[in-house]
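Hi F.,

I've been meaning to write this up properly since the lab meeting, where we talked about keeping a consistent format for the predictions we share between groups. The idea is simple: the sequence comes first, exactly as it goes in, then the structure tokens exactly as they come out, then a line or two of notes. No screenshots and no reformatting. I'm using this chain as the first example so we have something concrete to point to.
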Amino acid sequence: MLINLSLLFSLAVFAAAMTGTPGPNNIMLTASGANFGFARTVPHVLGVSTGVASLIATVAAGLGVLFEAFPLLQQGLRLLACAYLLYLAWRIGSAPPPARGALTAGEAAARPGAARSDAARPGAARPDAARPDAARPMRFHEALLFQYVNPKAWAMAITAVGSFTVAGEDYWLSAALTIAVFVLVGLPLTSGWAAFGVLLGRALSSPAAWRWFNRCMGVLTASCLVFIW
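Output, unedited:
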């Protein structure tokens, strides 16, 4: 047997713990779901899952040993991750509330007829009309590449490959199984965080509440620096 059931169960639990618990990815997905709705957060969700899968494949190919051979490379990655995470925290924390003339994701879901009638008006404001580029959702490639500057993601991938792959001719099959489990377990969990953000967005009824929510999400994102060090 390629991998026994007890090891497969342990892999699924490990994947759930790594992808489903609070961390930079899930905090940013919650903020994106609240601000932009679930549909516009889907590229972010898919980018996270694809990035994790490709990172595990990268480690399985042997590139993970670079950190052991060159410790300074890991330190440099941590510094880069800290800088980028602080930038993302600032971008989330400084995001303005949704444009006043546009419905939020929660309002649009609750009032589909109103959303259509507003969109039909020639002078109606579009959802992002009053929002700067800093307030857009994260794109697929950005979420994917973020995994490569996230030391926690590297540690997760190295642990997964080291613990759940088998040596010999079945190595790549076990690596593929590890990747598949991470995708099958992680994708619903990260999607759940985005959906949770949508629910939070529906509860925010004033611009002041939105500003405080985004600031809190920014602070929580910045606090994830403790996971890096």
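Notes:
Residues 100-111, 114-119, 121-133 have pLDDT under 50 and may be disordered.
Residues 20 and 188 are 9 Å apart (CA to CA).

If this format works for you, I'll send the rest the same way.

G.
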